[in-house]
Design goal:
Oligomer: single chain
Helix content: 55-70%
Largest sheet: none
Number of strands: 0
Structural class: mainly alpha
Shape: globular
Length: 278
């Protein structure tokens, strides 16, 4: 009996530790987004990369550095971004003034160095495989509001799950190139509600592994789960869909608030109040 109690205590301590680490991680993401200069952004970035793959932050750091007049660091982060598959065309479109400050000569030089030395830092074959899946996702996404056969829309996500994630887990930009993680999140966000129950149960396990590796946030995970449950029965696990205009959903959350708060606490989310349930 005492041994069983000690095991429960140890488990509770591990859950609390995990929750505190995730709270720190989420806080750092918000802090990075609110940075006012390159120095602040880089200090926060140094802490974030202890949790997760840092590739998605490279272009932003390059822009911060060039805006602060730190050309050497700007080029270093830009080179790192390009080694992981970042296309400066995106920068040219969204930040034309900063792009000009890098000069095409510098960008061409970095590109040539990467081509000549073959210093790409990700799995090119996996990158191509995922790109083909997401191209299919983009093509099908336009049908979302006109196609009555919703199962057509879920084909890219099912392909992603069974051909890649089963073997490799949630795509990481460090392994498969810049943007692959975000494309995966978008694909799941847009189409996961069309999965069958047994398919979603498998996706749920994959998402929990992504949580453990700090590849997705707690809020993202809770929303995906709750949106699926809402679309397939107006139930909820975490009560995270606060803006849903459904009396059935609101009644369910109200009547199951204790259980929902237990689930939220186990995940590391703050509890809902009775007011939140109305």
């Amino acid at each position: 009996m005492k041994k069983h109690f000690l095991i429960l205590m140890l488990f509770a301590q591990l859950v609390a530790f995990s929750q505190s680490k995730y709270a720190e991680y989420n806080s750092l993401i918000l802090q990075f987004g609110k940075a006012e200069n390159f120095e602040d952004a880089e200090k926060t970035f140094a802490k974030i990369k202890q949790f997760s793959c840092p590739v998605a932050y490279y272009p932003t750091l390059a822009l911060w550095a060039i805006n602060d007049g730190n050309r050497e660091e700007a080029l270093r982060y830009l080179a790192d971004a390009m080694r992981f598959g970042y296309s400066v065309t995106e920068m040219e479109t969204s930040h034309p003034n900063e792009y000009k400050r890098f000069t095409e000569l510098s960008i061409d030089s970095i590109s040539a160095h990467i081509r000549n030395s073959k210093t790409i830092a990700f799995d090119w074959q996996a990158y191509i495989q995922l790109n083909s899946i997401f191209n299919g996702f983009s093509a099908n996404r336009t049908l979302a509001h006109v196609d009555s056969n919703a199962r057509k829309l879920v084909i890219p996500l099912r392909t992603l799950m069974y051909s890649y994630m089963r073997k490799h887990g949630f795509p990481s930009d460090c392994q498969v190139g810049f943007g692959m993680s975000n494309s995966t999140k978008q694909c799941i966000l847009t189409t996961s509600r069309f999965l069958l129950d047994f398919e979603f149960n498998e996706l749920d396990k994959m998402l929990q592994m992504a949580l453990d590796n700090y590849q997705i946030t707690l809020d993202y995970y809770a929303f995906i789960v709750d949106y699926y449950l809402f679309c397939n029965g107006e139930t909820s696990r975490y009560g995270s869909l606060k803006k849903v205009d459904s009396q059935g959903y609101k009644t369910y959350v109200k009547e199951n608030l204790v259980e929902i708060n237990t689930q939220r606490k186990n995940l590391g989310l703050p509890e809902l109040t009775k007011r939140d349930a109305y």
